[in-house]
Design brief:
The chain contains five helices and twelve strands. By secondary structure, it is of the alpha/beta class. The protein is globular.
Length: about 190
């Protein structure tokens, strides 16, 4: 197996070497995959909780799947419940609310679904959206659409990292920023 190029980052006091993957010709991104990295998830949750402790919100909302461990750890740190927007509808979800967005990592449309039981939990609540990496903002947009349809008020957004155009994400509470890697940067 060939050695994959990586990008080294420090997040919440920990160093990680993120593999670079081409998502379209001439464009690569550093992939932060927190699944199974308990040490990093806990460190990030503690660091984000410090930045969020004075925020006024009722619950956390995230989209499946990679950011679920972060939402759980933040829930424990902050003592606030969390809700997960799902990507596949199952019959037990009942009268769900859906929104479609485009995923940067797959390049395919993805659906975000708030199931019937969670509709009542978010209705009328002040919610904080949590994600692992915010890149294009399409998942954020989808989450906002679902939450608006459900009668929730989004009062903030947080992520471990933002990616791409830094100025675009100045309102996001994050622990760092990832650049995009283009063929021009190789030369």
């Amino acid at each position: 197996m060939p050695t994959r190029e990586t990008y080294t980052v420090e997040i919440a006091g920990l160093t990680r070497h993120l593999p670079l993957f081409e998502i379209k010709p001439g464009l690569r991104i550093a992939i932060l995959n927190i699944l199974g990295d308990t040490e990093l998830v806990q460190a990030c949750a503690r660091a984000l909780a410090t930045r969020l402790k004075d925020r006024d919100f009722d619950l956390l909302v995230t989209a499946e799947a990679k950011s679920i461990p972060l939402a759980h750890a933040l829930s424990v740190e902050l003592g606030k419940p969390y809700v997960v927007l799902r990507k596949t509808y199952k019959p037990y979800m009942g009268d769900a609310i859906m929104a479609e967005t485009l995923s940067i990592t797959t390049g395919q449309p993805q659906v975000l679904i708030l199931d019937e039981k969670d509709r009542e939990i978010v209705k009328g609540k002040r919610v904080l959206i949590v994600d692992d990496v915010i890149s294009t903002g399409s998942t954020l947009q989808g989450m906002r659409m679902v939450l608006e349809k459900a009668g929730a008020q989004v009062v903030g957004e947080a992520a471990i990292m933002t990616e791409g155009e830094r100025a675009r994400w100045s309102h996001i509470i994050s622990l760092g920023h990832l650049p995009l890697f283009t063929d021009e940067q190789k030369g």
